[in-house]
């Protein structure tokens, strides 16, 4: 199947040097390679999907090395207190009202507050011993034993880039003690969309959380409480370790719930989604092309095996529920003409990480390499020292250096 764990021994570079090395003289100095310095890394990375239709790269089965919880005030806890259990609806057409509670039982997280990697960094400081050097065939010169630390959501954006036509992204990268940390920077377009969302858009964002409330219980033998408060500050996050080709990854992602009697994590986890009901062939095609791409990428990365989707009508009533096996999604789309391919997503992510390694050379937590991409453009980068883009907090840098000193 398309997303099985395979490796392509051939690896063609798709890094490109700019067509006009003298075209950019802004004060931020976009790095450009000259003819006199061909040994330098390429300065851009193409996102053209045809370049990535190679065999599926090696992607090791993700292993959960830890987890953490965020409470109703976004306080960090190094435990599972926020983990919920999936309760399958008794009816295939449950008539859940996703609008219920929006006006009077909803505490919304302030999405204008950018937490960067802070919660994951707190987990690292509390769990250094759990980060394992699992693969001796791929050496890592980092003190942490991994090449990259990031959020799952950032990698999801990278995976879907070859097929994205609407939204660009900005990712900040800093190298510290041999590990490259990647954090997202909000683009101007994303900020504009956030601050101008309509009331209808705000309510529809709530619907996804409300669906979780209808299908999740606090305990293994509990029952859902749809009459309670929906607080989107609360979260349970898995921390997984894996390897994509030669890149050792440590990343975290929010998990909606787990199945009571199931394999060990992450094999027990379930991703919950809502989507508009599908009534026409065109709607089904769009669902396959766009929504399933993001659903697949989000769940495939951490090894979440199933996605439960509530299909709702225009008024927010769930009219049907369908379960998707992450490993079989590529089979659902195989008859769609010119549809997305898992191999393209993973090969682009692999080449993107190689590109990041090639440009992020200086080991300095105050130095940020800002990687930018817009639809139909190449990935480019700029370099910033002691700038507002700096994201590794002093408490993390200081504690890490202190720990390293005490070990020697």
Could you please describe the fold and organization of this structure?
Helix 2 (152-160) crosses helix 5 and helix 2 (152-160) crosses helix 7 (342-359). The protein has a nine-stranded mixed beta sheet with strand order 4-3-12-13-7-9-8-18-19. It has a four-stranded mixed beta sheet with strand order 14-15-16-17. The termini are far apart. Residues 1-13 and 17-38 have low confidence and may be disordered. Strand 18 and strand 19 form a beta hairpin. The protein is globular. It contains eight helices and 19 strands. It has 408 residues and is α+β, with helices and mostly antiparallel strands.
Task: From the structure above, extract its key features.
about 400 residues; alpha+beta; nine-stranded mixed β-sheet; four-stranded mixed β-sheet; globular; disordered N terminus
List the helices and strands and how they pair.
Elements: E1 15-16, E2 44-45, E3 63-70, E4 76-77, E5 85-86, E6 106-107, H1 118-126, E7 148-151, H2 152-160, E8 169-176, E9 179-185, H3 188-195, H4 199-215, E10 216-217, E11 230-231, E12 235-244, E13 247-254, E14 257-258, E15 269-276, H5 281-300, E16 306-312, E17 318-325, H6 329-332, H7 342-359, E18 367-373, E19 380-385, H8 394-406
Parallel strand pairs: 6-11, 7-9, 7-13, 15-16
Antiparallel strand pairs: 1-2, 3-4, 3-12, 5-10, 8-9, 8-18, 12-13, 14-15, 16-17, 18-19
Helix pairs in contact: 2-5, 2-7
Organism: Phoxinus phoxinus (Eurasian minnow)
Keywords: Hydrolase, Magnesium, Metal-binding, Nuclease, Nucleotide-binding, Nucleus, RNA-binding
GO molecular function: metal ion binding; mRNA 5'-diphosphatase activity; nuclease activity; nucleotide binding; RNA binding
């Amino acid at each position: 199947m398309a997303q099985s764990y395979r490796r392509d021994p051939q690896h063609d570079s798709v890094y490109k040097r700019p067509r006009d090395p003298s075209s950019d003289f802004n004060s931020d100095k976009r790095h450009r390679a000259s003819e006199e310095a061909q040994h330098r890394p390429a300065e851009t990375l193409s996102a053209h999907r045809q370049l990535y239709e190679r065999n599926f790269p090696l992607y090791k089965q993700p292993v959960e090395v830890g987890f953490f919880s965020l409470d109703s005030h976004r306080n960090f806890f190094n435990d599972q207190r926020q983990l919920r259990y999936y309760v399958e609806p008794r009816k295939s057409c449950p008539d859940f009202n996703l609008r219920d509670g929006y006006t009077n039982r909803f505490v919304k997280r302030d999405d204008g507050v950018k937490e960067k990697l802070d919660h994951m960094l707190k987990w690292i400081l509390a769990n250094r011993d759990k980060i394992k050097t699992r693969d001796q065939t791929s050496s890592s010169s980092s003190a942490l034993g991994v090449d990259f630390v990031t959020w799952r959501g950032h990698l999801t954006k990278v995976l879907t880039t070859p097929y994205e036509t609407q939204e660009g992204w900005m990712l900040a990268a800093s190298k510290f003690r041999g590990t490259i940390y990647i954090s997202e920077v909000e683009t101007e377009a994303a900020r504009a969309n956030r601050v101008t969302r309509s009331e209808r858009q705000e309510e529809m964002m709530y619907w996804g959380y409300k669906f979780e409330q209808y299908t999740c219980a606090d305990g293994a033998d509990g029952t859902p409480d749809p009459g309670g408060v929906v607080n989107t500050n609360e979260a349970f996050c898995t921390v997984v370790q894996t390897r994509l080709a030669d890149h050792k990854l440590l990343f975290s992602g929010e998990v909606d719930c787990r199945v009571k009697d199931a394999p060990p994590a992450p094999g027990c986890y379930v991703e919950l989604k809502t989507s508009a009901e599908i009534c026409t062939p065109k709607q089904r095609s769009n669902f396959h092309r766009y929504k399933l791409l993001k659903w697949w990428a989000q769940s495939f990365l951490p090894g979440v095996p199933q996605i439960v989707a509530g299909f709702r009508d225009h008024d927010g009533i769930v009219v049907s529920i369908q379960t998707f096996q992450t490993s079989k999604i590529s089979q659902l789309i195989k008859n769609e003409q010119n549809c997305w391919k898992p191999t393209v997503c993973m090969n682009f992510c692999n080449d993107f990480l190689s590109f990041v390694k090639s440009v992020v050379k200086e080991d300095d937590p105050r130095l940020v390499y800002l990687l930018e991409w817009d639809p139909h453009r190449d990935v480019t980068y700029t370099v910033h020292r002691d700038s507002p883009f700096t994201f590794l907090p002093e408490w993390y840098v200081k504690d890490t250096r202190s720990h390293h000193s005490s070990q020697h």
